[in-house]
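Structure first, sequence second, as always.
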């Protein structure tokens, strides 16, 4: 193998730059040229890509986001779009592709590999909902941003004897909410995998109030049926239900823009290297992920269309800690 390409796709995640750097330097070390593709799959379709040198990927590891740019690309969902992408890579004698991204991105890489093009994915999403990796690039940084916000909100909540409702990212998955909730000492955690009714949230807050708590924290995943908007709507109809005065903070994309934590830099570096090693070993149509603290590959067909389930024992743990 003489030449590969690398791209980042879908929602950016802190640690993606470490993965780009590791793919590039591992490949160059093995005598393989690397093309960096701009703006995800869109760059493959537009032919927007350029060689990367070791120096091009210097000084990027400590920054969030992705130096290659990222996008969600509906054109790549069509066979015609993928054929253009394959043609553009063939013209540049690119023999294989590394795709750094989450669920949607790995669905794209699977479709490409089904058309005979060699692809290896790298597990990267702040949602940590991808099968094939115990943790994904970006989730640790996102949890830490949420946690910092929770800690700060607790300070003001305590001063004013208020309850705070903090909504964190996770369109379909409550992992960030659950982990930040446990680490932040939340009274209630609301996630899509284990819905809690507004009445139940109110009850738990009321119980905390009756136990003499000076403040309370509810951490909600954006994808929960009873997200922040719904809960606020509900509490407006009965402001006395919780005992506390309530304030709401929706963190949104601020969680994606963090500088990567050490854990995400290390994970990006290990998985980026792992993806190149997998290609060198002749593997294709697989995802490089971390399982049991080892970099291992999983066939993409076992991953696409699935969501890694959350460990509900941790949800119980959050509840026990809140009492
Ligand atoms: O996939 C990660 C994620 O951050 C989700 O948690 C969130 O709902 C979504 O991306 C937001 O995506 P966009 O960048 O398209 O707004």
């Amino acid at each position: 193998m003489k030449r590969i390409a690398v791209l980042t796709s879908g929602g950016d995640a802190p640690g993606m730059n470490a993965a780009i750097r590791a793919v590039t330097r591992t490949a160059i070390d093995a005598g393989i040229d690397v093309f960096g593709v701009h703006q995800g799959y869109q760059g493959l379709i537009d032919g927007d890509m350029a060689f990367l040198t070791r120096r091009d990927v210097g000084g990027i590891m400590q920054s969030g986001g992705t130096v290659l740019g990222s996008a969600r690309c509906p054109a790549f969902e069509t066979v015609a779009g993928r054929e253009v992408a394959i043609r553009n890579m063939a013209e540049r004698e690119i023999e294989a592709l590394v795709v750094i991204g989450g669920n949607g991105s790995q669905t794209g890489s699977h479709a490409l590999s089904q058309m005979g093009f060699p692809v290896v994915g790298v597990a990267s999403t702040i949602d940590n909902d991808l099968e094939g990796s115990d943790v994904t690039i970006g989730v640790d940084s996102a949890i830490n941003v949420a946690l910092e916000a929770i800690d700060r909100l607790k300070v003001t909540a305590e001063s004013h004897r208020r309850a705070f409702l903090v909504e964190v990212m996770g369109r379909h998955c409550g992992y960030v909410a659950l982990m930040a909730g446990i680490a932040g000492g939340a009274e209630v955690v609301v996630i899509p995998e284990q819905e809690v009714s507004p009445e139940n949230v109110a009850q738990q807050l009321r119980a905390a109030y009756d136990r003499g708590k000076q403040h309370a924290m509810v951490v909600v995943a954006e994808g929960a049926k009873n997200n922040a908007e719904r809960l606020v709507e509900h509490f407006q109809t009965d402001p006395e239900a919780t005992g506390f005065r309530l304030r709401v903070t929706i963190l949104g994309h601020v969680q994606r823009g963090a500088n990567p934590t050490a854990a995400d830099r290390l994970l990006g570096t290990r998985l980026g290297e792992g993806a190149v090693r997998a290609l060198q070993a002749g593997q294709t149509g697989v995802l490089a992920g971390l399982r049991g603290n080892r970099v291992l590959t999983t066939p993409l067909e076992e991953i696409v269309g699935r969501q890694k389930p959350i460990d509900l024992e941790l949800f119980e743990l959050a509840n026990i800690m809140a009492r």
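Margin note: Residues 139-160 form the longest helix (22 residues).
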